[in-house]
Write a structure and sequence with these properties.
The chain is built from six helices and no strands. It is mostly helical.
């Protein structure tokens, strides 16, 4: 005789719904950040600009985010999001960074640095100077360009949310008066 055993449904290893809720919660926190959308957009722009010259500096430029966020009164989570977004778009922009850097850095300056610096440092400079200088210029321009769409997008979502709340409140008030 075989006893009937209940088979438990197999629980997934990770609850993706909780991750989705967490991201929505963090997005809401960004929308409600003190200083409003302009502060978050400023942080995003800083993170994006710094990311454009982080790779050739072996990650040292990441340290620049913190003082820049403090000095420009920006939002740190917004800057970190911009930094991560910059990592996604870095590869196509690295070609542009190299071209702009090659255009801006004089050839004799590279030769001068190579002869007057220790050999290990001159090898790093030789390979990355164009990327660093080009990344600074392209990153600054990209940060300035990205500021306005991010700010407008955040303002749009904030206004849309306020409008939904206003409509819901008006419906509640009208339903209370009807009863």
């Amino acid at each position: 005789m075989q006893s009937a055993q209940k088979v438990k449904p197999r629980k997934s290893r990770y609850d993706w719904n909780s991750t989705k809720r967490w991201f929505k919660y963090k997005y809401l926190q960004l929308q409600r950040a003190k200083g409003g959308p302009s502060k978050v957009a400023r942080g995003f722009s800083i993170g994006l600009a710094v990311e454009m010259f982080t790779l050739p500096t072996a990650g040292f430029a990441f340290v620049l985010i913190f003082p820049l966020v403090y000095l420009l009164r920006a939002n740190l989570p917004g800057a970190l999001i911009g930094f991560v977004f910059g990592k996604v778009i870095y590869i196509p922009f690295s070609i542009l960074n190299k071209q702009v850097g090659d255009w801006l850095v004089p050839k004799h300056f590279k030769v001068y640095l190579i002869h007057h610096l220790p050999s290990m440092l001159s090898n790093i400079i030789r390979s990355g100077l164009d990327l660093i200088v080009g990344g600074m210029v392209v990153g600054t321009v990209l940060g300035l360009i990205a500021y306005f769409p991010v700010m407008l997008l955040l303002k749009y979502h904030t206004n849309r949310r306020k409008e939904k709340r206003r409509i819901r409140k008006a419906q509640l008030v009208s339903s209370d008066t009807n009863e």
